[in-house]
Write a structure and sequence with these properties.
Layout: E1 2-3, H1 16-22, H2 24-53, H3 57-63, E2 64-67, E3 77-80, E4 91-95, E5 98-102, E6 109-113, E7 115-116, E8 118-119, E9 127-128, E10 137-139, E11 146-148, H4 155-158, H5 162-191
Antiparallel strand pairs: 1-3, 2-3, 4-5, 5-6, 7-10, 8-9, 10-11
Helix pairs in contact: 1-2, 2-5
Length: about 190
């Protein structure tokens, strides 16, 4: 979970007097600025996390939830839920001895022995099986006893480490003062 409130805001002290003079309208402006800066950070987190994990941006977007800033709580929270991601969501290729999947820049391509996601004779007659829904399986016993193969990638863990955490901090730290300046100028020019 990321919070804009955890980003260093020492450079924002110049807005204190202005904020005190604006009263409740200032609170609204801060909430809009924090939400916009958080949205900009979220966009960068999605892009970076996709490269870091090897998942598509669509899958990452689905796993993220946002709690935007309000007038009373000027905090933007980016929440992620998820478990060990199945290999279905990664770029994968079936070989005679198993499945290879690309698990992002840090892990590279990993091989999962004796796993499969297609049926039929190898290599000419392999076909996608609708009942498997694109998941990768390995035999756990007999012919019909299958186990789903997972990747070992957890989105909540990945988003708080490495380049993703650095990009979040950098983006929000750069965007928040600009957004506050924009919102306060909008209020002051609209009031005049």
């Amino acid at each position: 979970m990321f919070r804009v409130g955890e980003v260093d805001i020492r450079g924002l002290q110049r807005f204190d007097n202005l904020l005190a003079g604006l009263g409740r309208e200032g609170d609204k402006a801060v909430a809009r600025a924090v939400s916009r800066a958080g949205d900009m950070g979220r966009t960068q987190v999605i892009k970076t996390l996709a490269a870091q994990t090897g998942l598509t941006q669509k899958v990452i977007r689905r796993s993220l939830r946002v709690r935007r800033a309000s007038w009373d709580v000027p905090e933007y929270v980016l929440i992620s839920a998820g478990t060990d991601e199945p290999l279905k969501y990664f770029r994968k290729r079936e070989t005679k001895d198993g499945v290879e999947a690309y698990l992002g820049k840090a892990r590279g391509t990993e091989w999962f022995a004796e796993s499969f996601y297609r049926g039929g004779l190898f290599p000419q007659r392999r076909v996608d099986l609708p009942t498997m829904n694109g998941h990768v399986f390995v035999r756990a016993g007999g012919r019909t006893q299958l186990e789903k193969v997972t990747s070992g990638v957890f989105i909540p863990e990945e988003m708080v480490q490495g380049t993703t955490a650095a990009v979040w901090s950098k983006t929000v730290t750069a965007a928040l003062p600009k957004r506050l300046d924009h919102e306060f100028n909008r209020l002051l020019n609209g009031a005049a």
